[in-house]
Each structure stands twice: as C-alpha cells, then as structure tokens.
Amino acid sequence: MQKNNEHIFLIGMMGSGKTSVGKFLSKQLNIPIIDSDSYIIEKLKMTTEKIFKNYGEKKFRILEKECLEKNLNGKQCIFSMGGGSILNEKNRSIFKNSKNTFLFQCSALTSKSRIKNDDKSMRPLIEKNNLEQDLQTIWLKRKKMYKECATHTIITDNKTIENISMEILSILNES
Ligand code: S3P
To answer: Closest residue (by CA) to atom 9 of ligand 1?
Structure first.
C-alpha cells in the first residue's frame, strides 16, 4: 500500500512514454489519470493540429495550464502532461514543488520509433519526414526546463511499460 498520496506528474518529450505508463500506473495504483492532450481535445472537440491552426499554440498552452490547475485541488491523480507543458512558468513551478514529478527521458530515436505511426494531427510541431531531427531540436531547446522541473528522471529507452512503472512505484513506495 502506497503512503505517498500526492499527485503524480509525468513530464517529458513526445514519445517518451508518459501516456502508456500513466495508464498502467493508474490501474496499479487505482487512481485516475488526467491526460492534458485528451482534456484539450475533448474540450474543444477538435484535433490538436486544428487547435494550433485555428487558435494558435498560445491557446493550446492556456488550456494545458487550465487542465493542470483545475484538477490540482482534487483527489490524488496522475497527470500525463503534453510535452510542452513545461514551457509555462506557473506549470514549471507546480512541477518543481512536487516530490512526484517524473521526467521521462529517452533518445530522439526512441521517441521517433514510438510515435512514427501515430496520427499526424496529434503533434503539429513535428514533421513526419523529419521526425528525429525535429525531436532533437525541441529537446535541446527545452532540456534545461525539463531538468529543473524533475524530482526524478526516468530513462525510458529499451524499457517496457511494466519496467518503467515498477521503477516509479518503487520510488513512490520509498518516499
Ligand atoms: C507537444 C506534445 C504533444 C501535444 C502537442 C504538443 C509538445 O503531447 O501536447 O502536440 O509541444 O511537446 P505528447 O507529449 O503527449 O506527445
């Protein structure tokens, strides 16, 4: 039985494994998962690509922040956050102040292999034919912010969803 009952934040680049691991952890811990991308898509009833195109990235980021803030005061849950959520200063301060912020880190090649077959409309910031390079460029721009937010860094290359989840569960049990 887990004693640490604070929210769990999963942050990291696209394709680092946040959503898959978040869903698994949610079952293991029997607590809900809140996926910021799904929250936004359901709220506007539009794909991420369309939101970016019609309203701009800024609007998307506002909704990402809203998703976080709206659910912070509720019961313990797992927040699987879109890769760009760390771009917002208030979000960063929430992540930094939590003992349960897990940065999922992997190579651009690993991310690419995980997302290459996903629907293009999920990730308008990257080009299908230039995936690895785009991911690497974005990572380098954001690296410092990701690192400053993380209370724990989990390397997710060459690991299964179960392996990563077990790593997180053991950290949660110790804290
Ligand atoms: C983004 C990551 C995506 C999604 C949007 C923007 C980003 O989420 O929020 O396409 O800026 O890194 P995932 O990290 O779940 O792929």
So the answer is: 82
Is residue 54 assigned to a domain?
yes
Residue nearest to atom 8 of ligand 1 (CA): 82
138-144-145 Cα angle (round to 5): 85
The pLDDT of 24-35, averaged and rounded, is 97
| 141-161: average pLDDT | 98
Total-model pTM:
0.97
Cβ-based burial of 71 (10 A; exposed 0-12, middle 13-18, buried ≥19)? middle
Neighbours of 61 (CB within 10 A): 17
Task: Answer whether residue 3 is part of any domain.
Answer: no
DSSP state of 56: -
Instruction: State the sign of the Cα–Cα–Cα–Cα dihedral 153, 155, 161, 164.
Output: negative
